[in-house]
Write a structure and sequence with these properties.
Elements (H helix, E strand, L loop, with lengths): L1 E10 L3 H10 L5 E5 L9 E5 L5 H7 L5 E3 L2 E5 L2 E5 L3 E5 H9 L4 E5 L2 E5 L2 E4 L4 E9 L9 E15 L9 E4 L8 E8 L4 E10 L6 H14 L4 E18 L1 H6 L22 H14 L4 H18 L1 H13 L5 H8 L4 H9 L4 H8 L7 H7 L10
Parallel strand pairs: 1-2, 1-11, 2-8, 5-13
Antiparallel strand pairs: 3-7, 4-7, 5-6, 9-10, 10-11, 12-15, 12-16, 13-14, 14-15
Helix pairs in contact: 1-3, 1-6, 6-7, 8-12
The structure holds flavin-adenine dinucleotide.
Flavin-adenine dinucleotide binds next to α1, β2, β3 and β16.
Length: 384
């Protein structure tokens, strides 16, 4: 029997769904359905100040755990402080922000299918609403070719202050293996920090035991003694090399979709929080006009972004296909010597024509012939 318990039912209660619920606030009753009882657990999501506009930073504010002025990058023989602000949300801060909202309901169940006005659960029950949204995360598709940013991180408490005052978004001074390898550091307070070992890799597999050892070795090399590991997180994020958005959307049902389910992520950095924030704004603007209007608005935004992101997919191809794995660090180091406003616009996905020309000109850090072969975004097998 159908149950009608909410204005909006969202299948999947990860980042994009939680942000949509936060953005709607008291404006509508939202039911979040996830197969996992604690879908936000084990995540830290970060963004650069320039990724969002002031109004977006404002409504996201209650979910932010920590904000910093500036961030560092480190390469062999070259370190740089970037002025750009950085902020992080985690399961506790985002969970607390939405649990205080009056209209939010939760259900732990596996969703079998989603249509415009409801979901069918794996046990056959149907839940109806004015609008249903699909936010069930990434599913591989022949219209997108990806590689991986993969990591294992530990939030640790040290025996003495670590001395960091801002995040180190890349410490690439470490030996290179399995692609581009670096450590990512978020200093939450004087004694506590997240240490993540990260790879831009051709392979999606993690090696948890080895990575835990690498984190311990890295901490020891900084002179830090770990008193306690409070939690661990892992991730394998898609990095897009080729995406035929028209073929992808032609095959999708006319249901509002957000997050990685809608392939909404930065092709080069793998970040998806800014896209999820923009989707949340769009939902708040259009949900009362019904599912068709909302689905169309979200689809238009996705297609527009996918077309505008072609340059970043080209850079992903340069990194993964033109550069040998052990030369990827060289490509990144060259990029981080460029002017800071250009770097900020690349993070935000708003690079200008002049930025693109600047990134591609000069002595190429990859073999010219291989770089030229990367230029066209042609699939080896054309998606249907
Ligand atoms: C550890 C980690 C750190 C990250 N850090 C950043 C960052 O710093 N900045 C950034 O922008 N991005 C970051 N990302 C990338 C990106 O933000 C995440 O991938 C993000 O969670 C994607 O949001 P989403 O809502 O699309 O999918 P998810 O958050 O993956 O949520 C999808 C949810 O759907 C549920 N689900 C799937 N199928 C079903 C089903 N059939 N029935 C019911 N439920 C279902 C899943 O259980 C899951 O909870 C990180 C990712 C990870 C894993």
């Amino acid at each position: 029997m159908a149950q009608h318990t909410a204005d909006i039912v969202i299948a999947g209660a990860g980042l994009s769904a939680a942000l949509a619920a936060l953005r709607l606030g008291a404006a509508g009753r939202v039911l979040l359905i996830d197969q996992r009882p604690d879908p936000l657990a084990g995540h830290t999501w970060s963004f650069h100040d320039g990724d969002l506009d002031p109004a977006q930073r404002d409504w996201l504010g209650p979910a932010v755990r920590r904000r910093w002025n500036g961030q560092d990058v480190r390469f062999p023989g070259y370190a740089r402080r970037l002025r750009s602000g950085y902020a992080s949300l985690d399961a506790d801060s985002l969970g607390a922000a939405i649990s205080g909202l009056p209209g939010i309901g939760r259900l732990t169940a596996r969703v079998a299918s989603v249509d415009a006005t409801g979901v069918v659960l794996a046990d056959g029950r149907r839940i109806e609403a004015r609008i249903a949204i699909d936010a069930r995360g990434f599913v591989p598709h022949p219209a997108i070719e990806v590689r991986f940013q993969k990591f294992l991180g530990q939030e640790v408490r040290l025996t003495a202050p670590h001395g960091l005052t801002r995040p180190v978004i890349m410490d690439a001074t470490v030996p290179q293996q399995d692609g581009y390898r670096f450590f990512y550091l978020l200093p939450f307070d004087d004694m506590r920090l997240l240490i993540e070992e990260t790879y831009y890799s051709d392979r999606a597999v993690l090696s948890p035991e080895r990575q835990r050892g690498a984190i311990a070795d890295y901490a020891a090399a900084q002179g830090w003694r770990i008193a306690q590991v409070d939690r661990e997180e892992t991730g394998v994020l898609p990095i897009a090399l080729r995406f035929d958005a028209d073929a992808f959307w032609k095959a999708q049902p006319p249901v509002p979709a957000i997050g990685l389910r809608a392939m909404r992520f930065h092709p080069l950095t793998g970040y998806s929080l800014p896209q999820a924030v923009r989707s949340a704004d769009l939902i708040a603007r259009h949900w009362q006009q019904g599912p068709q209007t909302l689905a169309l608005a979200l689809r238009r935004l996705s297609l527009h972004e996918a077309r505008a992101q072609g340059f970043y997919r080209l850079l992903s191809r340069m990194l993964f296909e033109a550069a040998d794995p052990d030369r990827r660090r060289h490509v990144m180091q060259r990029f981080y010597r460029l002017p800071e406003p250009l770097i900020e616009r690349l993070y935000a996905g708003t690079s200008t024509l002049a930025d693109k020309a600047r990134i591609l000109t000069g002595r190429p850090p990859v073999p010219v012939g291989r770089a030229l072969r990367c230029l066209p975004e042609t699939f080896k097998v054309k998606p249907a």
